[in-house]
Design a protein that fits this description.
It comes from Mesorhizobium tamadayense. This protein is α+β, with helices and mostly antiparallel strands and about 325 residues long. The protein has two domains: about 110 residues, no CATH class; about 160 residues, no CATH class. It is about 45% helix and about 15% strand. A four-stranded antiparallel sheet has the order 3-2-10-6, with helices on one face.
Amino acid sequence: MTKEFKQNEPNKHHFLPVFYLKEWAGADGKIVQFSRPNLRDGLVKPLRRHPSAVGYIDRLYAAEGLPEKVSNLFETEFTRPVDTEAAAAMRRLMRGQFDVDATPKEVVAWIKFMLSLMMRMPADIKRLKHYVKHDWFSDRPSLEAIFKRSGMQGNPQTVEDYQRLLGPTFYERAAMVALSGMIQAEVAIRAVGDLQWTVTNVYGDREFLTSDRPLVASVAMNGPKAHMILPIGPHRVFLATKTEEFRRQLVDRPAWDFVTSVNKHVVNNATDYIYGSNGAALRFVQKHMGKLREQTFLERINDRRMAEIAKPLSERDDFRANF
């Protein structure tokens, strides 16, 4: 087993896979992880590590309370194959061969990988499990709909009755099912697939950084300025834009300005970790880390879900959604 695929150990769940992080590796095979180990003093510390030694949390995607093989299904049956295919897709993108040689499976895997970056980070998983347990399925109509779909027998009358019959692992399982469904949403996959994809090499003194919120994306994907921007190395960035005109607006400026603009998004929105090829960006990271955080994808989804739950029962159509 190679170092790249040690991430596939059942309990070692990478929120940023090795194939992605290793693009920042230096001659020693290591990258720099920036973090704030002591929240009281707020100081950012750089740590040089191998890509396989960072970007993961044990059992991050596990549905706790279930047997190990079942609890790790999201990692073994979803994240692992998507990341494996996305690794092949990224290699083609970097070689400029994607339009000619990429398989349909690789195209979809790259889209799913990018979508996953919006909701697979540690803070996202914690937030999602909270939403599922305390918000999304805290009302009786939602629990009743889930109970009917489950095919279980019983005659629950109260929220507590439904929760007892659905079992103590229901919310863990529901969170992972919801996550998988959102990443694989056909509407989102088509929308990203309809964008114009390019990879741009940007050389200069400044390097792209990445983080635990690495994707820069517009809220909507149907307007003329719809975009997704993902650094895929210190001097390389993936761009998906609705129009060529907007792509040119992004890249037709001094290299330092474009890199700084992308890095500000990536670093300002970071939660706990930022990554680079070296420690040169320490002052920049210290200044911007987590300072101007935008609303996350899951926070927007939660707002929509709670607005739906607040409607009179006769006006709700959320029971058709795959929560």
